[in-house]
Specification:
single chain; 2 strands; 10 helices; 3 helical TM bundles of succinate and fumarate reductases; two-stranded antiparallel ribbon; 72% helix; mainly alpha
Length: 251
């Protein structure tokens, strides 16, 4: 005769599972996974954001960019994604800096005593510093453009569709960006910031692949190249936007 086995109540199992999940997320490995996933999401967001911003370089007086900005600012789904993106930026930065300081505290012997260039690359040893600079860049970017777009007085411009004859009066966001990038200090600041982001992104993409377990021996060289091409390609295109606008170069 089989002995009867008493199973624990479902509520206890669920609570145990919740506690286990919480412990996993609060552990160093859990935080690394979250940093990796949020980092990859933010990379995809940068690609989408870049596609829209490249319209600033079209020789149409800013029409394409203005309609793009109007769509991005009034689409409910885009607004939700934008808020989620800000939350992920904070989570990615906060946990990334926490892990960097925790790793440094756990290493009593500084890199300088162990030939840092031989042990790791400069970017990998300074991810927290790079991340902090990027946070400063985001703060300046939001104050200079996003805040003005949302709460400032943006001039309006009227367009007439040559085919349908429909007249549209929308905010001239292009004029605001053009004014911002007429300042050479802002242009230089953006270019330097893109260089910093390139370093951070180049190492970050590879680290994310490794953390998620998709950086095996055979795939590592290819993923490394993809990471660098993606990181430096994105940042280069972002950097040419303020430079081209400052010198009034259009495509």
């Amino acid at each position: 005769m089989l002995a009867k086995i008493n199973s624990p109540p479902l509520t206890i199992i669920m609570q145990t599972g919740d506690i286990t999940l919480g412990k996993k997320l609060s552990s160093s490995i859990g935080k690394k996974i979250v940093v990796a996933l949020t980092g990859l999401f933010l990379t995809m967001f940068l690609v989408v954001h870049l596609i829209g911003n490249l319209q600033l370089l079209k020789a149409d007086g800013g029409e394409a960019f203005n309609f793009y900005s109007k769509f991005m600012g009034h689409n409910p789904l885009i607004q939700i994604i934008s808020k989620v993106n800000f939350a992920l930026i904070l989570a990615h930065a906060g946990w990334g800096i926490y892990l960097a300081f925790k790793n440094r505290a756990a290493r009593p012997v500084r890199y300088a005593a162990n030939k840092p260039s031989a042990n790791s690359k400069w970017a990998s040893r300074n991810m927290a510093v790079l991340g902090t600079i990027i946070l400063a860049f985001i703060a300046v970017h939001l104050a200079k453009f996003w805040y003005n777009f949302k709460f400032g007085t943006v001039p309006e411009i009227t367009y007439t569709d040559p085919v349908t004859g429909v007249v549209s009066t929308i905010k001239n966001y292009y004029a605001e960006v053009q004014y911002g990038f007429s300042n050479p200090y802002i242009v230089v600041f953006y270019v330097i910031s893109m260089l910093v982001i390139a370093f951070h992104l180049g190492h970050g993409i590879q680290s994310a692949f490794q953390t998620l377990g998709i950086n095996n021996k055979d795939a590592a060289p290819t993923l490394k190249k993809i990471g660098y091409v993606l990181a430096y390609g994105i940042c280069l295109l972002f950097a040419i936007i303020p430079v081209f606008m400052y010198f009034h170069i259009t495509l």
